[in-house]
Specification:
single chain, about 625 residues, alpha+beta, Jelly Rolls, Heat Shock Protein 90, 7-stranded mixed β-sheet, 5-stranded mixed β-sheet, 14 helices
């Protein structure tokens, strides 16, 4: 053989030895664990049930095949080997990550299989899987592990690290990995739901503080996005594209609403910008629902738009805090610093610029919640302090106002008493002038007239009229504060009943519904003068044997009737001869009524009117 041939053979032997040394890693200690990072991979179709015979290439876990086999949607088989000591003890096996669905074979025996290895693919990648291997599956010496992974090139398909070794140690690793990969997301989901519900209730109670509602809406969309990391079933969707499209729509909507929350929190409203971003979020949602095969594979556009919105909102809030510092702004801005850095790492991981099998953003949620809790507590503390200060100031102002009001009321009461006294005096003067004064002047003029010879009886009659008018003035003035009209009519009724009885005139009085009626001093005086003048006419001119006076109040109306069975008269002729009827009409008018006169010779006289109880303007 030539030198070139010998060199070729030597190279092949070295390669085989190196590959076997890498592929078959021994377990030298019963308590040891090893990470099987060296593997071989081979692509296959969706219907592949057995590993392919050719096409195997060496890979290092964790491995994503979208960079090696672009646009390959289907199955990739991974083969791993290790040497097992012949002690007959079981071994723990941990498959940390497999995207998106997989089946596991150990030495040709099926150990685990996802329910859906074709679309819609199962979502078992959300959590690690632990297995306990024992005889007869486990062999002494060389053992082979085959993993059939089903995935789509648009969603970073591949296989994470695989660990074998001491069952207790591997189980501890599995539990720690499950907490990081799965438990934190559940914690994030629960805490987000609690705070979202709290802020929603606060928004219902204080609708004017709209930032509460926007934060609640942001937590709702964040919770829908977090479902991507905790839901293992593809239901209700029929493809991974629908899942991923909606996932991106929720992420973008959460970023937009969180940005609006930060704007509203500092009292800024950019309504056109907000509407535009909300319309874009709604458009992504519609696209994911009706065109999932477009929204899913091209999810990077929505992810980048959401990331830009998220970073712009948080960096803008931090800048605003530096411009207008406040304690709650500082607390909230500080709680956003670490999430910003972690989100940058997750974004680089998502874009495959760096490699890893876990997103860390959920672990930073408690920091944001702490910042929100401090901001909320700070605002409530400020509000309570303002309320307490307002209460003290209000008490002081109320005290001052009470003292001022007391002084004012005292002055007003004094003025009211003086006005009442002055009014009483004016009413008395007016009544004396209009009533008694007029009658007195008329009597003086009659008595001084030299052309008339006054008989003593006539003089007495004039004096009696003056006395009666003076009594009316005294009665109405004395009973000005009396609220009972019946009590004000009673003296007039008593006097005139006696006077009519002395003239052999039977008088009957009917007074109804006036016991609680108060017309006021001036209107009562007009009513009494009307009755006095009407009864005077009966006594002087009617020659009646009976007179009936009826005063009745009903439905805010006061009706007055004076009826006699005397000689009667012709109303129009009587009004032209004397001043009696015109005076009665004038008094009825001042009471707000129209006088009705019904009389004819030989049939008696009937005077009546109906006046409103309330004074007329």
């Amino acid at each position: 053989m030539s030198l070139r041939a010998w060199l070729a053979v030597l190279f092949l032997l070295c390669t085989c030895f190196a590959r076997s040394a890498i592929a078959e890693q021994p377990l030298t200690d019963d308590a040891a664990t090893i990470d099987l990072r060296s593997a071989e991979a081979a692509p296959a179709g969706w219907d592949s049930q057995t590993p392919p015979a050719a096409g195997w290439v060496p890979v290092t876990l964790m491995d994503f095949w979208d960079s090696r086999w672009p646009h390959h949607d289907g199955v990739v088989w991974y083969r791993l080997r290790w040497n097992q000591p012949g002690n007959g003890k079981p071994v723990g096996l941990l498959v940390d990550y497999a995207s998106m669905a997989y089946a596991l074979y150990v030495n040709g025996s099926l150990i685990y299989r996802d329910p859906q290895l074709v679309e819609p693919l199962s979502r078992s990648w959300i959590r690690p899987h632990y297995f306990l291997l024992d005889q007869p599956v486990l062999r002494s010496g060389s053992n082979e592990l085959m993993i059939r992974v089903s995935g789509l090139s648009a969603y970073q398909p591949g296989l994470g690290t695989v660990t074998v070794g001491n069952p207790e140690r591997v189980l501890a690793l599995a539990r720690r990995s499950e907490f990081v990969r799965y438990g934190i997301h559940w914690f994030d989901e629960c805490v987000g739901a609690v705070f979202g519900g709290l802020f929603f209730i606060l928004w219902l109670l204080r609708r004017q503080d709209s930032y509460y509602g926007w934060y609640a809406l942001s937590t709702l969309f964040s919770s829908l996005y977090t479902l991507n990391f905790i839901v293992s079933s593809p239901w209700p969707f029929d493809s991974s594209d629908a899942w991923q499209g909606l996932n991106v729509a929720w992420w973008f909507a959460a970023s937009v609403t969180f940005g609006i929350f930060l704007l509203r929190y500092v009292g800024v409203q950019w309504r056109r910008f907000e509407r535009g971003m909300l319309v874009l979020a709604a458009s992504l949602l519609v696209l994911a629902l009706f065109f999932p095969r477009v929204a899913g594979p091209y999810r990077d556009v929505g992810v980048l738009l959401g990331a830009l919105t998220y970073y712009a909102a948080m960096l803008g809030f931090i800048g605003y805090t530096l411009w207008r510092p406040r304690a709650d702004y500082y607390a909230l801005a500080a709680s956003l610093l670490i999430p910003i850095a972690v989100s940058v790492r997750d974004l680089l991981l998502y874009l495959s610029i760096i490699h890893g099998d876990n997103m860390w953003m959920a672990a930073t949620s408690p920091l944001t919640i702490m910042g929100m809790g401090f901001a909320l507590a700070y605002r409530f503390a400020v509000a309570m302090r303002r309320a307490e200060n307002y209460g003290v100031e209000l008490e002081r102002e109320v005290g001052a106002a009470t003292r001022a009001l007391t002084e004012t009321m005292g002055r007003e009461h004094g003025l009211a008493l003086n006005n009442a006294r002055i009014t009483e005096r004016l009413n008395l003067v007016r009544d004396l002038h209009d009533g008694f004064g007029g009658s007195l002047l008329g009597a003086i003029g009659t008595l001084e007239d030299p052309r008339r010879r006054q008989e003593p009886a006539q003089v007495v009659a004039v004096l009696k009229e003056l006395r009666d008018d003076l009594r009316l003035v005294i009665d109405t003035t004395t009973h000005e504060q009396d609220t009972h009209l019946g009590g004000q009519i009673a003296p007039l009724r008593h006097r005139w009943s006696q006077r009519l009885e002395a003239a052999d005139i039977d008088s009957r009085w009917s007074v109804e519904g006036v016991d609680q009626l108060n017309l006021g001093a001036m209107r009562v005086l007009e009513l009494l003068r009307f009755l006095q003048e009407a009864l005077t006419n009966v006594l002087k001119h009617s020659r009646a044997s009976q007179v009936h006076v009826r005063i009745h109040c009903e439905d805010d109306k006061l009706s007055v009737d004076v009826r006699d069975d005397g000689l009667g008269f012709v109303p129009n002729a009587a009004e032209t001869r004397g001043a009696g009827l015109p005076s009665l009409r004038a008094r009825a008018t001042r009471l707000g009524a129209s006088l009705c006169v019904a009389s004819s010779p030989g049939d008696g006289t009937h005077l009546s009117f109906i006046a409103p109880i309330a004074p007329q303007p």
